[in-house]
Model the fold of this input.
Amino acid sequence: MTANQILDDVRAAETEALASVDAAADTAALAAIEPSLFGKSSVFGRLKAGLGGLDPEDRKVVGRALNESRTRVTDRLSARRDQLSAVERRAQLEDERMDLTEVTGELPMGHRHLLSQAHARLEDVFVGMGFTVAEGPEVETDWMNFEALNFGDDHPARDMQDTLYVDWGKPESTLLRTHTSPVQMRTMLAQEPPIYVVCPGRVYRRDTADATHMPVFHQIEGLVIDRDITFADLAGTLEEFTRAYFGADIETRLRPSYFPFTEPSAEYDITDPRSRTGWLELGGCGMVHPNVLRNGGIDPEEWSGFAFGFGTDRLAMMRHGITMLRELWANDVRFLRQF
Ligand code: FA5
Done:
């Protein structure tokens, strides 16, 4: 082919390519014709391959014309793509627009999560018994969470609660609280006895999730400091609370246990409120250790007290017969709607 023939072909190919770009009705059609415009077997591809047969001078002229043609087609293609995308976007927005004025009748109402209900109910029960509600931070110092609660630096009981540390300050000086007991210390430091508080809140441990454990869960802490408080007051309060929360015919028992911040310490169990067979562990409790009272600025010669801490996720599970703790966190509305 001569140079002039090729130049004619280039012009014809450009006209045809521009027409097909203009004719593409949407971005998908545009994407579909693109390979046929510029690919190896496209007209431009074949014309480019034909350049090899021309003498150097003609090759330069035709090559430049070919490139200019390709550029014009490429520019038209991208302008057309922008134009079509804008049209499609507008159509999509129009399509997805919701006319809220069209909603008629009753809208389904949400309600408080089962755990929030449990906390509200627990607070109600304790407020009814003369307690006030206190709160504390979820990011705590080692001192509040362990040291002041009589754990000591190398106390093996630190391993009872696998801790998640926060990268702040000295290594292992800041942590996600492993229990609500630091709120006891904060309360003692903030107010004078007599103290009657409950502290509900979220706590964190390096626990593996299973039917009754989660790495994030909730507890409710109770603290009473007054004159002449005895273990009988603790037992009576817990029994009163359990009846108010679960019902009148629940049996309770205290089992000797160990916590560094209480002495003596006990584990508190109730009969399974549904099956009425076997015992279920609700939490720990005990008489506040004199060291803890001293750390809280309270004279153990003058005041005594008790404390308890229950897992509220487990309380809610027991009350409602839930077998998998994880259900409380999965937020499946079919589950939550039942409570
Ligand atoms: C404590 O956390 C003590 N601070 C309780 C306490 C307070 C004792 C005041 C004495 C005086 P313990 O580690 O046993 O104790 O946890 C208490 C309760 O939290 C458990 O009985 C259980 O109901 C709940 N619990 C513990 N770990 C988990 C977990 N991973 N997931 C869900 N609930 C948990």
The chain has a mean pLDDT of 89. The pocket of adenosine-5'-[phenylalaninyl-phosphate] is lined by residues 161, 179, 181, 205, 207, 213-214, 217, 219, 221, 259, 262, 265, 281, 283-286, 307-311, 313-314 (CB under 6 Å). Residues 56-96 form the longest helix (41 residues).
